[in-house]
Amino acid sequence: MELVEDGAIAVAGLSNHSIELMERALSVGPIGVVQHQYSLLARDVETDGVLDWCADHGIPFLAWSPLASGFLVDGFDLDATHATDLRRRLRWATTEQARTELVRSALQTLSEQHDTTMVAVALAWVTRRPGVYAIVGARTPAEAELLGRPLPPLTDEDLQLLDQAGSA
What pTM did the predictor assign? Predict the structure, then answer.
């Protein structure tokens, strides 16, 4: 808060904190943003109350890894990654591989229906709630091009398909 008061930073934010710690931080001063991992494959913030807490307090939520480390990107092929690639050890490639495939299939179906990319559909799903934003990184011009598409408006049926795939 001293940095905010001194004008060195505009706002203070939190990353990966529990609701208990967010409440404690809020008692010290205003919170400008809360950041947690959130994607169709990483949905803990829905069940642990973090998204609701942010909405209740009017604090923007920033989703990191909304494309699940590339698992939700068009053309992602785990077999094409290097043998030491960290993603080979993630739960989406091991214990939750079947769910990952269901989510990818639903994204593919909707990307075709909306004439867009899986990336655009996945980001539209993450940012469908007011006050929820996504932070996405691109390492190559091709990756940046995938991010350049407008996000499609998802229907209730689209959201149901994605939610069912993601909770399987």
Answer: 0.89
